[in-house]
Amino acid sequence: MTGSDEGPEDQEKRSPRRGMNREEENEPAAERSYSELLDRIRATDERYAELLDELRSLSEPRPFAGGRGTRSTTETTLSNSESGRVRLRDIPMTRRRRIAKSVAVILTGLSVFAWLLGYLASVYNVQVALFALPWEFGRSFLSDFQLLLLQTIAPIFAWGVWGVLAAREWRRWKRAHDVESSDRPSSDISPPRVPGTSPSAVQGNLEAGRKTLRRLLSYVRPHWPYAAGVMGGLVIAAVMDLTQVWILAFLFIGQVVRLGHVELLPNVLLLLGTTFAVKEISSFLKDYLSEILAQKTVHKLRSDLYENIERMPMSFLDTSRSGELISRVVSDTNEVERVLTDNVADFLSNAVMVAGALGLLFFVNTRLALLVTPPALVMVIVVNRFKKSIKQTSRKIREAVAELTAKAFEVISGLRIVKSFRMEHHEANAFRDRSWAIARAKVRLARLSGAYSSTVDFLTLCSLAVFVWFSAPAVTSGDLTVAVAVAFLGYMDKVFKPLVVLSKVNFTVQKAVAAADRIFEFMDAKVEILDAPDSLVPQTIEGRIQFDGVTFGYRPNRYVLEDFSLTIEPGETVAVVGSSGVGKSTIVNLLLRFYEPIAGRILIDGYPLDRLNLGCLRKKIGLVLQEPVLFSGTIRENILYGDVDASEENVVQAAQSANAHDFIRGLPKGYDTQIGERGVTLSVGQRQRIAIARVLLKNPSILILDEATSNIDSESESLIQDALHKLAQRRTMIVIGHRLSSIIDADRIVVLEDGGIAEVGTHQDLLGKGGVYARLYEAQIDRGAPEEAPHNQLDAV
After folding, report:
1. What is the mean pLDDT of the chain?
2. Given this model, what pLDDT does residue 174 score?
3. Is residue 504, in this structure, part of any structural domain at all?
4. Would you say residue 651 lies in a domain?
5. How many C-beta atoms lie closer than 10 Å to residue 135's C-beta?
C-alpha cells in the first residue's frame, strides 16, 4: 500500500513506529489524524440522519380511523420507540374495534336521547310519538323496569366489549414492541407486528384452514354414497329426536295431563316408541356408514402420503428424520381418522339438530325465541375466537410428538452404541425434555379447553336465566301455557346441548386440521425427478457409461465433483478409490439419479441419463452397499425383492451363485426363516450374501459395489468375492473399494482427488507411476504386514 492509499486510521497506526526521536513531529500528526477521524464520524452521522429523514418522507402517511389526524404508522412507531411505551391512541384501529366503538357510540347516543326525551315528557307532560313507538314495542317483551335497566346497561356493555378488544390489541402491540425493540436497532423504521395478527395474515390463516378442509373433503367425495347414507341417517335421527319433544309437550302434557284425555295415552306411548325405534336404527346406520367412510378415506390419505414419501428426492430424505416421517404417516393420519370416525357425524347431526330446534323455537313462541337467540349467536362467535388458538397449540403438540418419536426411534435403533458409551442418562434426559415439551403444550391446550367450556356453559346458563325470567310471570298469568313452556324448554335443550357438543367437536376438528396441515406439507413437497413425456425405454442396455464434464455439490458453491469426465466400456470393471468425502459414493448417487448434476451430462449407451425412463434405468442397475439393507420377513421374501415374479428355482439358483444356499439350508426353516428387523438374526457376511443373491435375481446390466466387503471377516470376504466374480461376468461393474483385495483385479483403477481424477490405470501401472495410489499403498504396507495388505483400507490415510 502506498502512502497516498493510506487513510487516517492507517497513518495513526503507523505513527508510533517512526521512532522516539521525532516525538514533536509525531504528536501533531496524531492529533491531526484523530481530528480527521472525528470529522469523518460526524459526517457519517449527519449522512445517516439525512438518509433516515429521506426514508421517513418516503412512507406515505396513513390516517388513523376516525379521522384523528394523518400521522403515519411509521411515525407512530418511531415516537413509541423514543418514548419507550406503546399508547392505545397510537395503535391503528382494526375493523373489529372500529365496529365495537361505533356500536357503543350509537347505543350511548340512543340511551342519552331516550333519557332526555323521557325527562322532557315527564316535566312538560308531552307525548313524543317517535319515542312512544319503540317503547311500546319493547314493552311487548319487557316490563318498564327491565326496559329502563336495558337502556342503561346496553351502552355500558358495548363500551365493555370495546374495552376488551382495545386491551387485547394493546397487549399484542406492546409484546411486539418489546420484542422488536430488543432485536433491532433504533434506526429500524419498520412497524412492529405480531406474526399472524395482521389482517392479511389472519385472512391467510383462515384461507389455509379452508383449503385444508377442502382437500380433506376431496378424499371423501369419491365415497359419496356412504356420505349420503350418513347424512340421511343423521337427519332422520334428528327429526325423531325433535318429534319426541313435541309429543311429550303438546300431546302428553297438553292433552293427556292438562285436559285429561287419558284415552290418548296409548297412542302417545306408541308414537314415542316408534320415534325411539326409528331414531336408534338411523343412529346405528349413521355410525356404521360413517366408520366405513372414515376408513376408506383415511386409507386413501395414508396410502397417498406413504407413496409420496417414497417419491421424495434423496436430498429431502437425507435431511429428514425417520421418526418424524413415521409420525406423519401413522400418528397424524390417526388423528384425522379419529375425527372422521367419531366427530364428523356428531358435528353434522348436532348441526341439523340446532337448525331444526331453532326453527321450532320461533314456531312455538317468537318473542321468547328472540330473547334466547343472542346467547346462541355469542356462542358461535366464541367458537370462532378459540379456533385459531386451538389449531396452533394442536400443531405444536403434533410437532412435539413427532420430535419425541424421532428421538425414540434413533435411540432404540442405536441402543448398543448408547450402552457401550454409557450414555443412557444423557439420552434419558433428552427424551424427558421432549416429553416435557409435549406435556407443556397439552397443559396449554387444557387451559384453552377449560376456558372454552366455561364460556360455553356460562352462555347456556345466561340463556336459561333469560327464559326463566320472562316465562315464569307469563305462565303464572296464563299468557303462556305449560305445554308451550315445556316445549320451548325442550327445544332450548336441543339447541344449547348440541352447541356445547359442537364446540367440543370443533376443539377436536382443529387438532385434526393441524395434523392434516402437516400431512399435506409432505403431500405438496417436491417429489423425485419425474420422467419426461418422451422418456426412452431401451430394449437392452450394454453398459457403456460416460461422465462428460460433470459438476456436482450437495451444498451451493461447494463442489464434490468438478468437471469430472470418465468413460467405462461395456463389461469393464472399474474401481474407484480415494479419501473420504472425495466423491466416490457421489458417482453412484448421480448414476442412479438420486441427484441431478449441476453441469455436464451422464450417458448410458449413448442415451442421456435424464432422457431414460427412471424405472427402466434403475431396473438395469444393481447396487450392493457396504451395510446390506434387509427387511423383516423371510429370506425368500428378501431375495424375491430383486424380482417378485421369479420362480422358486430362480431364487435357489441366485442363492447358490451368491454362496448363500448352504447356510440357508442349514437354518431350521430354510428359506422361510424369519430374519427380524434389518436381518438382525444373521451375521454381516450372511446378510451381504443374501443382498448379492437379491441383485443376481435382478440380473442387471450394470453392477455397483459400494464398499461391499469392507465390514466383514476374511472367510466371509472370500465367499463374497467368489460370488461377486460370478455376478460380474458380462456386466459393467463399478467398485467403490476400501480393501485392496476388492480392487487389485479391476481392469482400471480411478483415483479421485480434489473433485477430479488424479490417476487412472491398473494396479501395477499405478504402483509404477509412484503417484497418489502408490503413496497410499506404501503407507498401508508400512502400517501392517504385507500379507495383511489386501485387508487394509485405501482411504484410511
Report:
1. 72
2. 63
3. yes
4. no
5. 15
- Report in angstroms the alpha-carbon separations of 176 from 75, 193, 783: 16, 6, 64
Nearest Cα residue to 349 out of 296, 287, 305? 287
Q: Are 675 and 635 in contact (CB under 8 A)?
A: yes
Please say whether the dihedral angle defined by the alpha carbons of residues 539, 544, 549 and 551, taken in this order, is positive or negative: positive
Give which of 387, 433, 378 is closest to 210, Cα–Cα: 387
Domain of 439, CATH number, reads 1.20.1560.10
Question: What phi and psi, each to the nearest 5 degrees, are found at residue 517?
Answer: -60, -45
Same domain, 368 and 254: yes
Residue-range definition of the domain harbouring residue 13: 3-58
- Amino acid at the residue 61: P
Q: What is the CATH number of the domain that holds 577?
A: 3.40.50.300
Whether residue 325 is contained in a domain is answered as yes
Q: Which helix (H) or strand (E) holds 208?
A: helix 199-220
> Residue 695 falls within a domain, yes or no?
no
Nearest 5 degrees, angle CA 622-CA 585-CA 576?
85
Scanning the structure block, which residue is given the C-alpha cell 399435506?
Answer: 520
Number of domains composing the chain: 4
- Are 237 and 134 members of one domain? no
Q: Any bridge partners for residue 748, and if so which?
A: 574
Taking Cα atoms as reference points, which of 629, 632, 611, 618 lies closest to residue 588? Answer: 618
Q: How far is the first Cα of the chain from the last one, in angstroms, to the nearest whole number?
A: 43
Q: Do 24 and 118 fall within a single domain?
A: no
Q: Can you give the pLDDT at residue 365?
A: 78
CA dist 43 and 45 (Å) reads 5
pLDDT, mean of residues 714-743: 71
Same domain as 42, residue 128: no
pTM of the predicted model as reported, rounded to 2 decimal places: 0.54
Question: What is the dihedral angle through the alpha carbons of 248, 250, 251, 254, rounded to the nearest 10 degrees?
Answer: 110
At 160-203, the pLDDT tens digits run 777 777 777 666 666 655 544 444 443 333 333 333 434 344 44
Q: Which cell goes with 776? A: 497410499
Give the integer Cα–Cα distance in Å for 342 and 340.
6
pLDDT in tens, 374-421: 777 777 777 666 766 776 777 777 778 777 777 777 777 666 667 656
Whether the Cβ atoms of residue 217 and residue 223 lie closer than 8 Å to each other: no
Set of cell numbers at residue 725: 466374480
| Beta-strand runs (E) in 241-380 | none
User: Is the domain of 259 the same as that of 367?
Assistant: yes
